[in-house]
Records
---
Amino acid sequence: MIRQTAIGMMLLAASGLSAADTVKIALTGPFSGGSAPMGVSARDGSKLAIAEINAAGGIQVGAKKMKIEIIERDDEAKNERGALIAQELAAMSDLSGVIGTVNTGVCMAGDKHLMEKGVTKIICPAAGSASMTQWSKAGVKDLSIFRFAAHDGIQAAMVVEEAINRKFTKVAVVFDSTNYGVSGRDDMLDQIKKQGNKLEVVAQEKFNIGDKDMTAQLLRAKSAGAQAILIWGIGPELAAVSNGMAKIGIKAPLIGGWTLSMSNFIDNAGKNGNGTLMPQTFIEEPITPKAKSFIDGYHKTYKVDRIPSPVAAAQGYDSVYLMAAAIKQAGSTDTKKIKEALEDLKEPVKGVIATWNHPFTKWDPADVTTHEAFRREQTVMGMVKDGKVVFGNDADRARLIKSATTATPAKTAAPKAKKK
Amino acid sequence: MNAAIIGQMAISGALMGLVYALIAYGFQLTYATSKSINFGQGELVMLSAFFSLTLTNLGLSQHWGLGLSYGLMVPGGLIFGAIMGLVVERAGVRLALEQKSEGWILLSIILGLFFFSAAENIWGRDDRPFPTPIPEEPFHVLGLAIGPREVAVAVGVLGIMGLIELLKRKTLLGKAFEAVSADRDAAELMGISATRTVMLSYGLSGSVAALAGILVSPITTVGPTMASAIILKAFSVAVVAGLDSGFGVVLVGMFLGALESLASFYLGSGWREAPGLVLLILALALRPTGVFGKATIRKV
């Protein structure tokens, strides 16, 4: 697989595309394994946007139009492979930017190589808080890493809010043992405290990647009297939890991170998954003409009738347009200039999720939201219903239609909310 | 903790433990006739599960309905398992045994790795759900929730083991099997082909592996790594019970399964695998022939 890609790339390089005429953008992520639905969707969503841009002649860079050339790398969701790929990409002198990474652990292992060389990267769709807070903790002054995903801070806030709104008082916090799961647990516990300790955490249960039998963890949660299960993990194990809940008769809803919309959760959990709630940035429903053409385009191009991870696909699509807008504004393929343009995008960018008006600002180590595009208002509650993710409530649908047609408020004056 | 939870964990664990028992039984079958076992048995479980999944989906795409597709898939899967067992015997075991070498250990591991790669390339690395007409909603007995799929595992495991034991005792073929197990050279002198009997045992062992795959997949999903954890426990069961007691593997399998799930409840899920390993060490130290094994007298 990797060798095939490598050979393909060599052929592509040899077939006369001289480097000077193209903008090189790398797409990375897990294209195989348990995280693949997100990786593949993000990649394919990005490719859809790239195909559109190339079909229109490419990006206007200074005086000439340049097409985008894709460099694709499968990190298999493995931290060590992610680190190797990041090193390889950091060593490419003519690379304009990187879009991708699904797994927080892979971000933690690889992004430092890109950061050191100042390579512009838009993280999409890894949501773990740690992949951005690591830079503020390190006090990095100048950062070339951006994130285009509803980070776990927002998501955890919504999950806790949902549990409180549903009048639960006792919850179990369940999470996987990866960086993603553990940082998700911390975010949830943090949010429970912030939102006034209205929820009592009666059990904290951990599971490992590959676990199939969650009976022990769930029974402990049940016997402690948990009314709802707040969860952070990825598809296959989430499905095992959902199936385990059905088995031992826990009727409480499963509420957790956006990974509960992954196709391998929805398929493996079957009807046990119905009613599961998770924050989403994109719902596969043609609520706007732009969304319709994106969904139809994805279905047709990749011959599917359901996007494996609609959120990842839509984010991949929009992040390519943001990157392209930055390249155009910079008038250069130099990754450092693109970074500066991305921090100060003058024109709104029309995406499928929203119209992005100045999504990023100059990096401030005291405030990670300077490099985070998403806010609470671009995020909605999704719910699993008969094999698909639908809007958890109709007010959200109306709000999204509105935000897709009117530009989001500029965030030049980002509120400095975080107080220690 | 209350008794209901202990009961629940023990019964769930014990029913799953029967899967370990079934795979361990597959080791016993080949060990009896040839004193060899297939170290790639886990890959046979996985490969047969994938093949059966494909058969079921094929049936479903023909609009046969889930019940019929599943019903036709089971014999198909078992035959596939038997064929794969024969492939292992022919490619990995026979030559090594003829040369009286221990080469079958390495060869069966290599074949397993080969099957693993083949499955990854044919079916991909993702875990997939296995459709089954057996409902999932548990029923309650004395306050314990028991899933019909777990009951299906128990019925399937005990059923096929009973059938094979019956075959061994009542049919001529079975008597030949027992004769070769007892004394290969003497059996050959009586006109029983030892090679054929070993083939039979590998075929049966393959079918048993296939059934384990078919029974466990609706509970755990199908994926290339689905059997890697199960197979280690099956080894433990086979060693602890001894390599010649079918009754023993059932008891030890259920015991280990129950112990595991109780350990993961009381000690934390990270300790799930610990009791099996402790049991294995104890058995090797105290009773190397297995709790239910017969001490072999080696004539020098």
---
Amino acid sequence: MSESKKISRRAFLKAATAAGIGGITLGFPMTELAAQQKEKATAQAKPKKKVLGVDVIKIGGQGVTSGAHADYGWQILAGSTLAIEEINAKGGVLGSKLEMKFMDEELKPAVAVKNARYLATDWGAHLLFGVDSSGSAMAVGPILPELDRVCMFVHASTHRLTEELVAGKGIKQIFRISVPVYQESILASHIFKEFPNIKRWAGIHCDYEYGYSTWALFKDTLKKYRPDVEFVSIAWAPFWTMDFSPHIAAVMAANPDAIHATPWAGEGVMLLRQALMLGVFDKIQAWFQCMGGSVDLLEGISREVEGGKFKDKLWATARYIHNYPDTPENKKFVADFRKRWNRLPNYSAETAYSTIYVFKAAVEKTRSLKTDDLIKAIEGMEIMTPGGKRLFRPEDHQAVYDVPGGKIVKDPNYPIPIIGDLKVIPAKTYYRYPPFTPIAIGK
Amino acid sequence: METLAFQGLVGLSLAMYLWLLASGLTIVFGVLGVLNFAHGSLFMLGAYFAFTFYGLWGINFWLAIALSLLAVGVVGYLMERLFLRHIYHLDHAYQLLLTFGFILIFDDAVKIVWGGVAKIPAMPSFFEGTFSVFGRLFPFYNVFIIGSGLLVAVVLWLLFEKTWWGRMVRASASDREMASAIGVNIPTLFTGVFVLGAMLAALGGALGTPVRVVAPGIGAAMIIQAFIITVIGGLGNLKGAFVGAVIVGLLSAYGILLFPVFELFLIFVTMAVVLIVRPKGLFGG
Amino acid sequence: MKKLALLLLVVLLGLLPLFVGKYTLYMTIHIMLLSLFSLGFNLLLGYTGLLSFGQAGFFAVGAYACAKILMAAPSLLLGILGGVAVAGVISLLLGLLSIRHTRIYFSMLTLCFGMMIFSLAWKWRDMTGGDDGLVGIPRAPLEVPGLFSINMTPMENYYYVVLVFTILAVYLFYRIVHSPLGLTLQGIRDSETRAACVGISVRNYRLISFTIAGLYAGLAGALLPPLESTVTPPVAHWSHSAEPVLATLLGGIYTFAGPIVGAALFYILKDIIVRFTEYWLICLGVIVVVLVLGFRGGVVSMFYGKGGQR
């Protein structure tokens, strides 16, 4: 039952790629920083064919494309496909075209491992990227040395991936382009330490590692700045929770001033709507919906935001927000993505899109597909992406970039709500730094 | 105290979805002797049809519910006539396996038709709002759910105790050959009972659409809870299914409030205790 | 003739690493694990007449126990045998509760117990690592202190370990079902009352059968962590319990080789189906329905021309 799909998206992808090349030329030159400028110039000057010794550079991707969270995997597929179409339309990387095979990880670690093995040892992928679930990331990470491949993680958010596996155990093949749980926990505490009237916090969190670590980090950081704050109640919701009313009723019994919540995707939408039904927004001052800036969630609560049901109290963030930063790169990416897929890009679309360009930059820099060379190329790389300037810290291979938090509001320029009233806090302030101390997760 | 009472109310509304799901499962098993593994999938189909009629096509809420019951009734009719009918004489294992096959089929079928993204339609405006009870705000919709669940319980009781059809069903449940001998058309009756069970599942799914999520897999996720309920209440016993659903609903609600870390276990522990004390369930004969 | 074919198969499997790539080897290991898993399951279904939907629970117990042992004391044999032993104890305990029921009640109970183990794996974070699971399990060397020590880092080496365990376990299984115990179990399956009349303790025999099935599930589970270096809760989920069900149904319930043939077919079929469509579950569902309605004997009995009916 739980095994993988091997070739599943191939047909789809072929069609997609063909359509991209046949259409108008998409894409824009990624503005890379000075360090790479020279490299790139030399690369382009060389004769195009066979610099790398291969006709195609094979990229193996994974995401969840089935079940209730399938939209996240779709976004990864859509983002990376767009980047590959752009790059191939301009002649590929050092004369080699890019080819991708994308597989469903089904949110099951065993499947993700099997896919990774298949992609690396059977299909012959030179580079790997993907996975949505933290469990899958933690399972794929340790086998990368055996597979001798770099894998760029584009969504999985557990801090343990970079803190334990890279900084701790030294698995250099792991990189992560998306911001981990620091975003929804530490950033949130930096925002809300400025609200002196919010003293009583409650949590409604996923009953798995993601929820535990987010809540623990949020509490620890906020307590540091605001010793007067109390954490009055907590409710844990397992996967497949379909009715959050008992959770909401349980935490509201403690009369909190604000609520911090992690359920994501469809579950997040349900949670918010059930909170509305129970009149929560009449009683509290703020609600922080961690990944509320995700496009599928914004689509799901569009009507309620328009109707002002949340009374301007709903806050959120994401790992990339399509209306930030206000740069030409981002505008172009959003416009191209909307043209190509007729939707707004979610954060996993941006991270996947940027991943392909990071790979391109790395291959062009080292002019090789050897894993060791690629690791050196990505370590310390600074690169401009739609989500802003990213730096891959050498210590833990985590990309550092700023993503703000803010209130969910309606904007006439977009079909769905956006995050407005942005609170931009520098990534340096809200990232954790090595040496890492394990997060004490007491429930 | 008021907190506990309020949490109980919330748990009761949770219990009613479970009751709607478990009642159909129980009736079908009690009469046909088939444990329908795919019963949860019929719940899911009910939710998808309701979403389509009401959320997508904008049909009146009540009519949409009725239509989705009808649609799932047709699915149930076909399932019984074309497939289940042929395996009544076989071992239970095969019936479980066949209906398991249907879980796989239905789960993927809804993905093909409706896509993998979760659907969440708007709530009908006349259900919006809350009223104050135990000093807290309780949604009208939950009252409506509790009312519907109780109404179904009463209707089912009347149906089986007071009508000619119900008596026939009960007769054939206790002795199939005898019922057949006194002129009950067993095959038609079985089809009818299966369709009734399917429609009950669909009702649970359809009533949940405005407030819950509609996604592939919600049926398979619910069926385990329905099984636990029937194990606690006693397999094939309608009263047991009702009591079991209320127990499980209240346990979850109070578990979340009082033992947030062990909520999930509370239900399994209860099941194990019931099994040790009363192996056939609370109301099992 | 039959013996010759068997010998040929064993030799072929023994030489496999010389011909095929890493991925095929990896998949072959998985087929062997599912074979062991299904064999045990079929002792319950085919030979004892009990359909368990919770075998993944015992698989998971074996896997987690083996992983914990390997992380504490890196000896492959200790990990595998320890995993099997713990799975055996747990299946004996849950068996005591489950075998009081038969037929549908038994199926539901095992399903619920399996899910109980799943929630344990999910929630007992200190022990199991929660949903992230246990990470970084070493593929410890195969060693008996003072005698020998074989490095297991190359997958080929580990493949041979799994192969040897599989051959031994299959042979043992053959002996079990052809022993008086196996015949008694079949007697109980065919008529419980008749068996009880001749003085057989039906419950005890069912409990033995349940425990052996648990041991086989545990063995399959214990062989997993050294391969994957991770164990996560989905191995205990009921959708994993369905795998031996499908494999056995596919291969044939009332034949010795059915579950093994089915396990291989299950992986091969899936490999073929997923090449054409991402909706492979629906295909699997249709196969199940067709098998139940028309070919209840499975592939193996079709081959022998026995037809599907029992």
---
Amino acid sequence: MEMPTPNPEIIARKAALVARLERVLPKEAIISDEIETRAYECDALTAYKCPPMLAVLPSSTQEVSDVLRICHEMGVPVVPRGAGTSLAGGALPTADSIILGVAKMNDVLETDYENRIIRVQTGRTNLSVSGAVAEEDFFYAPDPSSQLACAIAGNIAMNSGGAHCLKYGVTTNNLLGVTLVLMDGTVTEIGGGYLDSGGLDLLGLICGSEGQLGVVTEATLRILRKPEGARPVLIGFDSNEVAGACVSDIIRAGVLPVAIEFMDRPCIEATEAFAHAGYPMCEALLIVEVEGSPDEIDAQLKVIKDIARGHNPVELREAQDEDEAARIWLGRKSAFGAMGQINDYMCLDGTIPVTALPLVLRRIEEMSKEYGLDVANVFHAGDGNMHPLILFDANKPGDLELCEDFGADILKLCVEVGGCLTGEHGVGVEKRDLMLVQYSKVDLEAQLAIKDVFDPAWLLNPAKVFPLAITKDRREARATAA
Amino acid sequence: MEPKNEAELAGIIAAAEGPLAIEGGGTRGVVVGGEVLSTSGLAGVELYEPGALTLVARAGTPVAKIEAVLAEHNQRMAFEPMDHRGLVGSSGTPTIGGVIAGNISGPRRVQVGAARDFLLGVRFVDGRGQVIRNGGRVMKNVTGYDLVKLLAGSWGTLGVLSEVALKVLPMAETQASVLVEVSDAGAAVGVMSRALGSPFEVSGAAFDPAASLVMLRVEGFEASVAYRLERLKDLLGDAGEVSFTETFEQSELLWRAVRDVDVFQGRAGDVWRLSVKPSQAPEVVARLEADGLLFDWGGGLIWVLMPEGVNFRQRAGGFAGHATLVRASEEVKARLGVFHPLPAPLQVISDGIRKRFDPRGILNAGLMQPGAGVAI
């Protein structure tokens, strides 16, 4: 993975930068020791590491503004960081950059049940947002798998999704307002406790911009009342194709489940050995969950079970109680951990039209044989968001590169069938160089123009999202200016 | 000018020597200077996959055509775009491009989201005549910046849409509405908040003060709708007399009337659209001395009928949200401004984006700009 060559002139000004930061931040909020900065050398894409020049952990919007203003004045690149759970390398630093972490900013600022909103500082973890409103039976809907650890800041940066977004949407559909700090230190509010913001939809633009347009320090989020109940059903099939066809039929039938999750045989076997969820050994299984009162659940599950029976399932298991429901979800939720027990893996995130599922699964299997690397598939089938996990051995020379080539081929296939490179993880550094597979240079130039407006000096997370070759002039113009 | 395809559209914009007035069906009451550039020649559904809940259409495709195509498979645009013709007194055929350019959403916005939430991808021609693509046709897509959202609600000021990809949803088997007799706005917002904060999946929450009636819609399959009606009655019975609509058609007509703000049709005066935090709505509207009010989105959207030429924003005083002047004479629009003023940093950013996408300033010049009221 190529990263820009660190600028020695910036590194040479480290002491001056620290001196200025010490005037606006408490000493303990500045991490400059070379051993301690290693804690920030990577995120969850651990294959790539580089300690930053410094890490700072501000406690308020004002402090974030001060830090950004100083870095802007001194021409220092800034890499914003939430909880560091990005699978795409969104928070990977360079040696001449500082990490700006919002982890200390995790307060709930306001809960408002009448207007069904919560306002939080963005260092707060996803799950603890739901936790803050649980006593009134409300919840925050987007639920990425990392929800125990991941921060709202990162959720907004990557426009995170989750298993239940088939019904409730992703982050952008549940975000009503932000406090945004621009690279020059300007603090501004976009949106708020009302549904549509006036003017251009800058809120929609900020969400998913991977920390390249500004640093979001506070967010107003939509909260929802919990449903009366929810119940999953587990359906096993003897082929991926049939499972894929069943997904399409369920969607077409007019019932909209809250989640449709898919696992293939390699994934079922691995999770079964790891979590002992009691899954049937079959080629593919679906977990379909519906919500409502007990009678409403029965009625919806009847439709789903009837459709499933038309596809000759090898297993059809409905949760009879909370415990069985938890067991059905147990395997799915431990899938990534289970794969990690077997080997190193790379988790992809391409999204495809649901109707292309059988074709894409078959092609992945063929490519797996060609590359000689195993793949397990576990994903959100309802919305076509695939998560192929390619297994490799990080200690075996060349295996990571082989795995990356295989991954790139899968993502190209996703684009070819009408899909995209990433459904919820973001581009980061991981998929940066594939952007021209999905978009033309003109398409990308329109996106670069947006960054030019928000961050003319290209200091915020500059080496991400776009192929380095096409951002080179912009980044180097900054270096010359500095 | 009426290009027949995207390449022609791009050619016209690249060669334009003066301002262009971008028009879909011309039904939303937008008036801007310049030569009219209509997208109505770019029509047709390009792709529809019911099993993937996606539809791709050229921008000039009539909304009615899309609704008909979807209805064949029992699907719909869940964001329920309003039809402005009755309210603003326009004629013509609403197009999907116009819906997206204006981010036009109806009562179900409170439950499922706005037009922008159902927009998966766009193709558009910028002010230089370049064809630009963003998003795609899949449900989840975080590949690069979300220009899809940016284009929704940009009223043709950043580019002319040539094609849009939409997420669609199954139609509900049936619907019915709970009607609660309430006269006071504060109490009405309280009732709507309780309903929307319940687990009973209310898909519309409106209040018509002239009829002293709160309306709450539930949709789904028959037994589920019946169940939720009763539960809402139990929940809200202490607030006022509760009744139900008797037929599917009755409920459907009720919500069409809310969607299109029928209560103001044929009544003189300016029409304002106020977006506000529901709990703040009663105090804001109390300051307005309005001639008519209709609350939608649980009180988050207020349609206001005002005497002609009154400076609404001044009268409303400070509030979090924004107000748009939807219907007024061109003189009043020019004087009061159609769009709400933005905070200074957001205005700078908006101007910057516009300058990059349309360096010559030829697309709907003056629209969405402070002080220049030619719009909607």
